[in-house]
Amino acid sequence: MEIFSENPREKIWQMLDRFQYSSNIISHFEKHSLIYDSSLADSISGSIAQSREYFTAAANSSLQISPLLLYYGTTNLYYATYILVNGKLPSINSHGMKLFKPEKLNYIGDIIVKILNSETGAINIYTKLFESQNMAGNWSLIDFLRSIPELYEIFLECYKEEQSNLIPITITKKRDDTFEAFLIEALARVQYSDQFPNNIINFQKAYLSPQQSMDKKRIILRPKLNSIDIGVYSYTGQKYLQIAYSRNNLLLQMPLPILFLSSLYALGFLTRYNPEIWSNFNRTDLTGEKLVFENFTDLCQRLIPNYALNKIHSTNHQFTNSRQGIRDFQHSLRESDVKELIKEYFEENRE
């Protein structure tokens, strides 16, 4: 669903604010045939109200504390989202994550988040909410950031020894053909490039065998008939193929709402419990990593409420006036069309 707005952030919150009113909450439950307790309305409206306050406070705060505020705002918003989707309260008794600092910390991104295998941990409950498998294990903050589309360029610029998990795709649409492509050099920027395309979940279901372009600079991908779309998208519409994480001989793909939540946990709790590290970093960073986090927290403001809104309504709400990464020639004239038009013109104007 495309919604044009001069201020997408405010428009999204206006749409979420509807659920601060019990009549709208009850209408939502009834529309989706959910059995519900009317007392849930207070939990939903309170969580959304608090979430908006946290997001507003974060927008008016520096990087010193904004990640922590955004983490609390996100957990409140996902809590309300869970209730609206399931018609019941989630059974949560912990964050479901722990933070560890490695002995050598070259980047803040080296911080380790251990996702616990806990059924009552918030991270696992919200991972299921966004329809993904258990992601238990140790992850670095860099692991999360490498899969966020909007951070693709700045991630590679900052973490020069790291690789992305994303391949930017150009979609070309012609009158009688549609195909996708990416630059071969982009493979050198991703993890485990020698395993492509086997390390992309459902690739074989989505595409025919990859082909090399005649100039040998691009890989051409042609979607199968009635195939599924396996890409992830930036909010401007730029498509990426996502390299899966490999853990215990399994390929895992962490949904974007969980990548944001996990990253905010890492930054927020570093802010809260290791202020000596975080404050010093904010004062003395020479690597450009601070710019990554400033971009990231700005994205949180724009995208996390959007993810919640999408989940509540089971619809992808797009709040943008422009799209990127698509070359549309569907309405361009072919050479044969031009010749036919010229022929018709001369026939009509023949003396």
TrEMBL record:
Protein name: YaaC-like protein
